[in-house]
Structure formats: structure tokens, C-alpha cells
Amino acid sequence: MIGCRSSLATLMLGLMAVASCGEAPSDAACPEGTLRAGEVCILDQGGDNPNNDVPPNNQPNNDVNNDQNNDVNNDQNNQPNNDPNNNPNNNPNNDTPPPLPDALPVTVDDVYVPSGYMGDGQQPNNIVEEITCNDPRPGGGLGQCHKFTFTPGAMGWGGVFWQYPEGNWGTADGFAMPAGATTLRFYAWGQNGAEVVKFLVGIGDADGFALETTELELTTTPTQYTLDLSSVDYQDVAGGFGWVAGGVDQPPLVFFIDDIVWE
Questions:
Q1: What is the pLDDT of residues 109-165, one digit of tens each?
Q2: Cα–Cα–Cα angle for 148, 106, 138, rounded to 5 degrees
Q3: How far apart are CA 16 and CA 37, in angstroms?
Q4: Do both 78 and 120 map to the same domain?
Q5: Rounded to whole angstroms, how far apart are CA atoms 139 and 224?
Q6: Are 235 and 177 in contact (CB under 8 A)?
Q7: What domain count does the chain have?
Q8: What residues make up the domain containing 10?
Q9: Would you say residue 98 lies in a domain?
Q10: CATH assignment of the domain containing 197
Q11: Of the candidates 35, 96, 212, 257, which lies 20 to 30 Å from 231 by C-alpha distance?
Q12: Average pLDDT over residues 180-195
């Protein structure tokens, strides 16, 4: 190693920013104010940055980027869910149907749908159904109260069956009606009185039975009627209830049915 005067080294360090008085052993300490760079000692220009870190002005602004990313993520998380397929509140009425009854009594409207239009009822507007009723409702007020307006057409008769499933005339299994029912009861009345209607249960070939009342002349007072089921050997029932009317002299025929129950 070639020696150097300290004054000369100091001058050269100040002017050239390098102390290069020769090669220094790799394990030798550098003079105060210098840093080792390989085999030589160089002037420490970092001042207060003894660890030779990247100066603050040259550092990427990770804090800003992270803040921006966090803001974006938070904004996305706080956005309303406009996708109807992923919206947990898209079904506010909880439209999942309730389980079918497995014991008597069975309210017909809880299982069956008045979907089996017959005769002139197969033509649009010849039979119009509305869900409306007296207040208070008669009996237990179970199920729905049905108002029917029947306008006879070319066939001169019409009717409706309550079916399970909807529209089933025997192509599918009916409802597994719990065993032991002996009576089908319901209330019926007319808008003006003297409306003549026959009431039914069971779709012959589909259910293995079919019962009907005589032709009943309704009054304006809600009246309970029954069909006797005690002799019926039923299992799956497609036609839980129905009505038929015909030969009306002064149409339309307007009447009401409510509280239809197997028990």
C-alpha cells in the first residue's frame, strides 16, 4: 500500500469526491466521512443517510398509491349491489312457497290453483276470477275468497277446477292428500241471489273418483255447503274442488266461494 499525506487526501476528497490513494484492503476501515465501494473508499454524499438509502425524493410514493388503492377498494365494497342475480334483497316478498300440508285439515287454496277452465271458460273473458270478498269473511276465512263472473258463450256452460299441479288434468301425479278426510266444506253465495251452480271434487280418470252436488240455488247470504267424502278411496288428488254452471237465462252469473277445506 502506498502512503499518502492526510492533507493531500483531504484536498482530493473535497475536489474529486473520491479518496483513491490506492487500493485499500477489503477488510480495512474507511476514513470517517467515506464509504466503502468495492476496493476503494468514496466520499459519503448522503449526509444524514448513512445507510445509503434511496433519497426520499426518489422513492416511489407507495403511501399515496396504497391510499388510492384502498379508496378504490373501499368504494367498490361500498357500492350498491345492482346485479339482480346477486342481490339478497331481490326477493323482498319471500316468494318461496310454503311446504305442502301433510295432515288434515287441508285448505284447498294452500295447495290447488283454480286453473282448469272448462266449457265456455276456455274462451278469453267468459269466466273472470277476482280475489275479493265480504268483510268479515264467512267461516274461518281460510284460503282466498273468489269472485267469479261467468258469461255463457256458444257452449252454454262453463266451470273451473282447482288443480294440483296447476293445469293438471291427469298427466302428472296429484297432491298426496292426507288420509282420513270425510268432508269437503265451503261457503258460497250469489251477488243477486238465485244463481244456480253445481260444485265438484275429483277429476274422474285422473283421481279415480268424481263427486258433485245437486244444482244449488244460491242466496245473497254466505252459506256453508258440504260434499261427503266418507266413501271415497283417494290417494293423489289432482282436482281438489270445482264448480260448473249452465243454462243461465240472464248472464252474467256472478257468485262467490270462500273457505274451501278438506277435513
A1: 999 999 999 999 999 999 999 999 888 999 999 999 999 999 999 999 999 999 999
A2: 50
A3: 15
A4: no
A5: 8
A6: yes
A7: 2
A8: 1-92
A9: no
A10: 2.60.120.430
A11: 257
A12: 97
